[in-house]
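To close the chapter, one final illustration. This time we ask the reader to focus less on the individual chains and more on the assembly as a whole: which components sit near each other, and how the overall shape emerges from the parts.
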Amino acid sequence: MSFFEVHDPRFGSYVMFNAPVKQIATGFDWVEGPVWFGDANCLLFSDIPNHRIMRWTPGEGTSIYRAQSNYSNGHTRDREGRLVSCEHGTRRVTRTEYDGSITVIADCFDGKPLNSPNDVVVKSDGSIWFSDPHYGIKTNYEGYKSEQELPCVVYRVDPQNGDISVVVDDLGCPNGLAFSKDESILYVADTGPIFEADAPRAIHTYAVDGNTLGKGSHFHTIDPGAADGIRIDEDDNVWSSAADGVHCISSEGDLMGKILVPEIVSNLCFGGRAKHELYMTGTTSVYRVILNRSGIQIP
Ligand code: MG
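The assembled structure is written out below.
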């Protein structure tokens, strides 16, 4: 069997026929939020329903990085290399400092608790952008069932004064986020309201205008499934999770190819010494494939 589908001839040079899609860890319930720590040579990822952050180290395997993770979901690293995490259980975004202490970056807006921060990116100016859909408060599976008090939007946290502002308010349930290489575009995946199977689901683009965004426009609809996590590679392509694996979408919005994964993929990140290893969180397992391209990844 092949691990890949080539839809655009250019994609043929992105994958190598003898580099397998390999399951590197399994036994979880719903994995999400992969983030690579090159300085520690490990991958961190969330096992959301089991309330923990896992660590995978090449040659050593999997261990618990943080038990009682507050049902953490998406992670990234800030420009100083610190772990930034979305937490469903505490309905907040946090930063893990070098000494291990936790700093709260955002937990409310307009005097009301956030819904359940899902995914997060840090721009080169240090601003933190995160999505706040309601998935973590609608059931007790990935957090604590609670009343929703705010709409599902994307927020920006100012790096100077910590002020929080709404930057996207026209999607059903914003989820994965990624800046284009030059940070002129913010891609936002919309996975739609929970329990609304026919809600529109697509990746949207927003032109970055200083600290705000322009009007959104449709970029690409993932099929099958929906875009949840998204990342950008060195050629400015968008790599998106899907029900059948990971899809590579050109910056023009066209499907270039697929990495086929036997479980529904929620999210992905680049890692490894050349940022050419693609780590994919897929339902109960984590998968890895080595590519002939590098990702844009911090640090
Ligand atoms: Mg997500």
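The pocket of magnesium ion is lined by residues 32, 73-74, 118-119, 175-176, 228-229, 267 (CB under 6 Å). Helices lie at 135-138. With these observations in hand, you are ready for the problems at the end of the chapter.
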